[in-house]
Amino acid sequence: MATLVENRTSRGRMRASGQKRGPQARRFFTRLPLRILVALLVAVEVLPMLWMLLSSLKTQNEFVTGSVWELPSTWDFGNYSEAWFVGEFGTNVRNSILATVPSLFFLLLFGVAAGFALEVMIWKGRSTVLLLFVAGIMVPGQMLLVPLFISYFQLGLTETIWPLILTYIAIGLPLTVFMMAAYFRSIPREMFEAATIDGAGMIRAFFFIGLPMMSNAILTIGLVEFFAIWNDLLVALTFVTDPNLATIQVGLLNFSGQFGAVEYGPLFAAVCINVFSTLLIFALLSKKIMGGMANGAVKG
Predict the structure, then answer these.
(1) Would you say residue 112 has pLDDT above 80?
(2) What are the Cα distances from residue 40, in Å, to 35, 120, 279, 290?
(3) SS3 of residue 56 by DSSP
(4) Distance between alpha carbon 159 and the CA centroid of its chain, in Å?
(5) What sign has the CA pseudo-torsion 181, 183, 188, 194?
(6) DSSP letter, residue 121
(7) Does the domain spanning 78-297 belong to CATH 1.10.3720.10?
(8) pLDDT at residue 299 above 50?
(9) pLDDT level of residue 107 (50, 70, 90 thresholds)
(10) pTM to 2 decimals?
(11) Mean per-residue pLDDT over the chain, rounded
(12) 288: closest CA among 229, 218, 230?
């Protein structure tokens, strides 16, 4: 009798496990195309960076005589020091920082202040001003280069870093103001009304209520504008002809050796420094970026 009960129990367990395996197997095969697609996307993103990293460790002779897909026979880390010092990539990084940091600071400062004025403050004509900023988004930046170059030349600002800073602010301000206004729209207006009842003026409400609540939004938009400014080539190539003021993207064009031959090892090393440094910044701030995007998508 006990044996019969045990057999029935074991058969029941087998049927239960079979019933569990059935939905799990169907779920696995249902999600398999999505997993394959994700794996392909990861491969498309990771493999080129891996190939670029390995290429930065090759010698010039391996680039000339070997295959493009051939692994480096010896890891030549001297390409990085040659790119930084001989290729003056360190100077290019310094110039990019000098152009990016002030541009980003004033761009965010003016953008947040304008977004606060357009969404929190009540005054006549604010809708028209916001529409003008939105219209500025649709103006191609390439159309502004020639008149800006003439203006900078007449003001004596050419061959300095100021044309880059002023141009980056002018080109990035419409989108920044539009996005900041959208983020301020998601903040409950009752908070600013309560601050006004407590005796806080607009300036105090801006610095003590608006700015702290916009920290994720500022970080999100700031990172978007940072990549746009940091990776710019057209503006930097138009307004700066002095090699001592060349930014990173312009400096990458100058990695040529004797008789104009491209120095591939230092070039790939410089590209790796640029790509992986910005990738590290994005990875460290990714959670803040997602939080800022979520806050901007929900209206309070």
Answers:
(1) yes
(2) 9, 46, 20, 24
(3) coil
(4) 28
(5) negative
(6) S
(7) yes
(8) no
(9) very high
(10) 0.80
(11) 82
(12) 218
> Which of these, 93, 15, 99, lies nearest to 251 by C-alpha position?
93
- How far apart, in whole angstroms, are the C-alpha atoms of residue 232 and residue 41? 26
Largest Cα–Cα distance of the chain, in whole Å? 106
**Helices 2-55, 264-284: inter-axial angle, 10-degree rounding:** 130
| Contacts of range 281-285, beta carbons closer than 8 Å, 24 or more positions apart | 281/223, 281/226, 282/223, 285/219, 285/223
Residues 6+ apart with CB under 8 A from 275: 49, 52
Are the beta carbons of 250 and 92 closer than 8 angstroms?
Answer: yes
Cα(126)–Cα(116) distance, integer angstroms: 11
Backbone angles phi, psi at 262, to 5 degrees: -75, 130
In the numeric block, which tokens belong to residue 21?
A: 């395996």
How big is the CA angle at 231 (ends 220 and 277), to the nearest 5 degrees?
A: 70
112 residue type, one letter: V
90 membership: H or E segment, kind and range: helix 89-119
Q: Which residues are CB-neighbours of 152 under 8 A, at least 6 positions away?
A: 158, 162, 163, 166, 239
Taking a C-beta distance cutoff of 8 angstroms, is the pair 242, 159 a contact?
A: yes
**Residue with the two structure tokens 């059935």:** 22
Q: Do 300 and 120 touch, CB atoms closer than 8 A?
A: no
**Residue 175 half-sphere exposure toward CB, CA atoms < 13 A:** 15
Cβ-count burial of 278 within 10 angstroms (0-12 exposed, 13-18 middle, 19+ buried)? middle
pLDDT score recorded for residue 176:
92
Residue ranges per domain, the chain? 2-55, 78-297
Indicate the range of 18-22, 44-48, 138-142 predicted with least confidence.
18-22
